[in-house]
């Protein structure tokens, strides 16, 4: 049995590595998605992250593909739902008028759409995907309050908020006796650290807000797969990786290579182990396109990086 950790004050405990479902219906088809989800739960993991908009950006997609695949997989595995924690999100533009943002009207509609696609009657953790400056926190949190009381969601979180925004939401929740965001989902990895480290990290730790990080491997760059412009064509995610091909990126990969060699591990396993050990981080979110990647997740969970190695990696990313 893998060790579980508390997800902030949600009352939810998870194995501290979350599957990133953005690949479902994008870089992998339904059959491969099913095989990877099977491997993920067989390895002992128990949390899956997705969003209503995944993966609308892929050709011929309209959004909802990831949730639909997860729902079909759950239907094919009776009894599995209660063993898993499902995270999804609302707020991204779904391509139709009014089908975006964090208004109460849209949240009430969007959650029903997500529940239908996921083929479940509750969502363990429901995230506000992006800040919405057109809607007050009280309206959004009020909508979540009704969903919590109806049992349609079990807890609420926010993605992509800065420290001031998160604090403002907490202040309004307290003043108006509304549910507060209990989990944050920031972009954070060994390369991209500026938006989380500092005031936001300190706030999350002070308020016992769970933190699950996205782009935990910098879109795959920290796997070491992409080391030059010639490597960018290796996957559909290549275009988003060119920004890492610089002196800092090279320094990080060199350090990952050195530490991974000491442990007989891969750069991706070391990069995930660094995140798992990071102050304030509950769990990284990581995606897989092969079942072998899931085995790598399990290795990352058990990788014993020393304080000196953790410091060496941190300095390389400064």
Fill in the keyword field for this structure:
10 strands; globular; two-stranded antiparallel ribbon; alpha/beta; 10 helices; 8-stranded parallel beta barrel; 318 residues; 39% helix
Explain what the structure shows:
- With 318 residues, the protein is α/β, with parallel strands linked by helices.
- Helix content is 39%, strand content 11%.
- The protein contains ten helices and ten strands.
- It has helices at residues 30-42, 65-76, 104-118, 137-150, 163-175, 199-206, 247-263, 267-277, 291-301, 307-316; strands spanning 5-6, 13-14, 18-20, 47-49, 85-90, 125-128, 156-159, 183-185, 210-213, 283-286.
- Helix 2 packs across helix 3 and helix 7 packs across helix 8.
- The mean pLDDT is 96.
Question: What is the compact description of this entry?
Answer:
The chain is 39% helix and 11% strand.
């Amino acid at each position: 049995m893998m060790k579980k950790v508390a997800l902030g004050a949600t009352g939810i405990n998870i194995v501290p590595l979350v599957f990133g479902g953005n690949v479902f219906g994008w870089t992998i088809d339904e059959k491969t998605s099913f095989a990877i989800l099977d491997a993920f739960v067989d390895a002992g993991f128990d949390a899956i992250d997705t969003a209503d908009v995944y993966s609308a950006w892929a050709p011929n997609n309209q959004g909802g593909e990831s949730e639909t695949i997860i729902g079909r997989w759950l239907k094919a595995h009776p009894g599995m739902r209660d063993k898993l924690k499902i995270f999804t999100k609302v707020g991204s533009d779904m391509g139709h008028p009014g089908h975006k943002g964090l208004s109460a009207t849209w949240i009430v509609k969007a959650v029903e759409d997500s529940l239908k696609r996921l083929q479940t009657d509750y969502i363990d953790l429901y995230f506000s995907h992006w800040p919405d400056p057109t809607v007050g926190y009280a309206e959004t949190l009020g909508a979540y309050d009704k969903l919590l009381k109806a049992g349609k969601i079990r807890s609420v979180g926010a993605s992509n908020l800065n420290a001031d925004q998160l604090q403002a939401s907490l202040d309004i929740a307290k003043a108006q006796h509304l549910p507060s965001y209990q989990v944050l989902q920031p972009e954070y990895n060994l390369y991209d650290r500026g938006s989380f480290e500092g005031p936001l990290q300190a706030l999350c730790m002070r308020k016992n807000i769970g933190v699950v990080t996205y782009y935990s491997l910098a879109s795959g760059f920290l796997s070491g797969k992409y080391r030059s412009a010639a490597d960018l064509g290796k996957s559909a995610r290549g275009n988003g990786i060119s920004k890492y091909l610089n002196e800092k990126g090279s320094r990080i990969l060199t350090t990952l290579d050195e530490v991974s060699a000491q442990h007989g591990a891969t750069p991706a396993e070391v990069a995930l182990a660094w995140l798992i050990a990071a102050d304030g981080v509950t769990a990284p979110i990581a995606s897989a396109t092969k079942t072998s990647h899931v085995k790598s997740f399990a290795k990352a969970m058990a990788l014993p990086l020393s304080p000196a190695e953790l410091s060496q990696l941190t300095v390389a990313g400064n």
